[in-house]
Design brief:
Oligomer: single chain
Number of strands: 15
Order of helices and strands: EHEHEHEHEHEHEHEHEHEHEEEHEEH
CATH architecture of the largest domain: 3-Layer(aba) Sandwich
CATH topology of the largest domain: Rossmann fold
CATH class of the largest domain: Alpha Beta
């Protein structure tokens, strides 16, 4: 199969979908690989390394898309890439279609077979290709939160860990999954006062054991949410419903009860965000203010640590990419059943039931 690796074009997206070692693995399997020039530079991989691994380098994205049977990316195609997609082409990347209906329509129009990293799902509900980026985003959410709480950015001027004799900063984490757990680990490591809100009693018990009483765990309900938000310096939105839009837990009315200069970091922005007042921001302009509360919602947060993120992501996506290249989607899904829910679009139709429901588009029969 002909594999294409275009350069990512989202704002400050420095990750790349394949390292030179990935290219070497594709080529060893008998595939040919086309890489856009400079695609790996942001993650620290030189053009010469790709050529040494057996890739052909081309100057522009159009050449990559036009010559490839399978396109492997990090982030969802942007509008300038929609017309580059071809009928029958296999697209393997993050899609988050529930938050980008125009992309769903483009995939249908172009009749692309689109497999989304974020909905590849094991029998136990684990999302193997989402976990590494969720872990990084969770850790970065606290790192970025600590920065933008500084006064020069409009924050409360609070040091999350405090100092002896001074109250510690308060961090509230909404959701106790991968993002929330890693956010809590970082916040606890900084010495913050941490509260996690989570719906599942089983998960609350696991978190209590994991942190050994160093965090406050609360059942996620309206009362606990309002009380927690009122005390928070930093709120981490870490909720996820696979394939669906994130529920709007933080409503506009809640902001009035929050501390001036407090900060919401909404990691759920890829799926539309869990705050009513949230909108996607960029690495260039990461924050804005509503009702004296700062909002941070950069969808590609892990791009800030592009080398770590690229290595973590490709370690999980490469085995699936190799299988898709060798067998095609249907045969690959028969071997690795977790690939089946990864199929979001094919033959001009939306294939994933939750995505279809989120978009109000009929699912393919």
């Amino acid at each position: 199969m002909k594999i294409g690796i275009p350069k990512e074009i989202k704002n400050r997206e420095y990750r790349v979908a394949a390292t030179p070692d990935c290219v070497r693995a594709y080529v060893a399997q008998g595939n040919s690989v086309v890489v856009q020039q400079d695609a790996g530079l942001g993650a620290g991989f030189e053009n010469a390394e790709y050529e040494a691994a057996g890739a052909k380098l081309v100057a522009d994205a159009a050449m990559v898309w036009a010559s490839s049977d399978m396109i492997v990316k990090v982030k969802e195609p942007l509008p300038s890439e929609y017309d580059l997609m071809r009928p029958g082409q296999l697209l393997f990347t993050y899609l988050h279609l529930a938050a980008v209906p125009e992309l769903a329509l483009a995939l249908m129009r172009q009749r692309v077979t689109a497999v989304a990293y974020e909905t590849i799902e094991m029998a136990d509900g684990t999302l193997p290709c989402l976990v590494p980026m969720s872990a990084i985003a969770g850790r970065l959410s606290v790192q970025q939160g600590a920065k933008y709480l500084e006064k020069q950015f409009g924050g409360r001027g609070v040091l999350l860990g405090g100092v002896p004799g001074v109250e510690r900063g308060k961090v509230v984490v909404l959701g106790g999954g991968v993002v929330g757990t890693h956010a809590a680990k970082m916040a606890v490591g900084l010495g913050a006062d941490v509260t996690i809100l989570e719906l599942s009693h089983r998960r609350l018990a696991e978190l209590d054991d994991l942190f050994g009483g160093r965090v406050q765990t609360l059942v996620s309900n309206e009362g606990n949410l309002v009380k927690s938000l009122a005390k928070a310096d930093l709120v981490i939105g870490a909720v996820l419903v696979t394939g669906a839009r994130a529920p709007k837990l933080i409503r506009r009315e809640h902001l009035k009860g929050m501390l001036p200069g407090s900060l919401i970091v909404d990691v759920a922005i890829d799926q539309g965000g869990c705050a009513e007042t949230i909108r996607a921001t960029t690495h260039d302009e990461p924050i804005y203010e509503v009702d004296r509360v700062l909002h941070y919602a950069v969808p590609n947060m892990p791009a800030a640590v592009a080398r770590t993120s690229t290595q973590a992501l490709t370690s999980t996506t490469l085995p699936y990419g190799l299988l898709l290249a060798a067998r095609g989607f249907e045969a690959a899904a028969a071997i690795k059943p977790e690939l089946a829910p990864g199929l979001n679009a094919a033959n001009g139709k939306i294939m994933h039931p939750v995505v279809a429901a989120a978009l109000a588009i009929p699912q393919a029969a």
